[in-house]
Design goal:
Elements lengths: L1 H17 L1 H22 L5 H24 L18
Helix pairs in contact: 1-2
Length: 88
């Protein structure tokens, strides 16, 4: 798992070196990858709680990252309040 995290960090560093637009495109791509993995791992009715847990973990990551990279301690509480789907 550590090797995979190193690869993701490398991708982020490369995107950041290209500028803000590339960094945002990187985050968008990661979000789509995570969304696809949630769908792959979940039964259709289990998707909403899986997304909610994933978003909650993202908040924990942002909290840790803010402390590690910016020295700002605090807590980011993230909740999913709405999810809609069209077509089935």
């Amino acid at each position: 798992m550590k090797d995979k995290l190193k690869v993701m960090d490398k991708w982020l560093e490369e995107a950041m070196a290209e500028g803000d637009e590339a960094a945002q495109a990187h985050l968008n791509a990661i979000a789509r990858i995570v969304g696809g993995q949630v769908a792959r791992l979940s039964k259709p009715d289990d998707v909403p709680p899986t997304i909610a847990r994933t978003v909650e973990e993202m908040g924990k990551g942002v909290t840790a990252g803010m402390l590690m990279h910016h020295g700002q301690a605090g807590f980011m509480h993230v909740e999913l309040h709405s999810l809609s789907r069209s077509g089935r």
